[in-house]
């Protein structure tokens, strides 16, 4: 992946390029940032720059043998480690056992998150993916091999927070004293979940949430959207490019989120009178895809946030245009400082359970009844 293909993060890119050109690349780096900020794409782009045959002042050349192999994630000196899970075929799985689906998934969506990957490899709804003990032997074996083509051997560990304590401890010495010209790049979305001993042995590089203009321009370039539609999606993505990509690819963000939300709130306000309509809404939501359910809940959280901002900031921090504010005008008084935390908490819980395949009819009916009670809080 080229640095130019990574959305935003220009300061981070320049820092990485400078460290490489000045010959002061740390042997163990930890990139950390929120989902959708570009932690993994940056790790990929830096690995390509390190193994590029003709790196430039701002990017890899993109045309040499090393760059072409990196684009397909098949460079012999760039190794990937990622969470896996046991299956009927793999009782003691390693990353190499899933290399085919991994390459296909990561190339198609370098901004993928844990749930995206689990959806690809899971045979059961209840299984969790992790970096298992069998991986340690594989990593140590690879870093002790001589580099095939590039001046560096690079090991990218995606989501190192998914390593258990045993695996983390066994890799500490490798992080601290790896073989010559070996570089570990850890790409984390939950820095606080990592062992302190790992944090102390890596150079930390914070990757911040993307700016709205960076997300908007990325969407226009990648999806050929109009600026108006790109702005709408950007508002709901809130700095998360993964979410922005999902909304764009599924043709979400058409400006109907506010009205859809208001229609639901009308049904929730007094369910004793609107139960038939509410049941119909629940059945309709249950028949939609899991991604559509997640998008609706994510959008609902953003709408609640905008209602609160309209109430407390006098419009200064509101991201809605006048038409959207008009749609929410009658509803916004029902969002206040006393109930907003409960409101958002229930929406987040529902989003969490949708990701874990909860029964959608039960989930959305229960959520609607809880929202009904929250709306009564003055």
Q: Explain this structure to me?
A:
The N and C termini lie far apart (52 Å). A five-stranded parallel beta sheet has the order 2-3-4-1-5, with helices on both faces. It is of the alpha/beta class. The relative contact order is 0.10. The protein contains 17 helices and five strands. α7 links the parallel β3 and β4. α9 packs parallel to α11 and α12 packs across α13. Helix content is 53%, strand content 7%. The chain has three domains: 204 residues, Rossmann fold, CATH 3.40.50; 38 residues; 119 residues.
Task: Explain the layout of strands and helices.
Blueprint: H1 10-21, E1 28-32, H2 39-51, H3 65-71, E2 78-81, H4 99-108, H5 114-121, H6 134-143, E3 153-158, H7 165-176, E4 182-188, H8 196-199, E5 203-206, H9 212-223, H10 227-237, H11 241-249, H12 257-269, H13 271-287, H14 290-312, H15 322-328, H16 340-355, H17 360-375
Parallel strand pairs: 1-4, 1-5, 2-3, 3-4
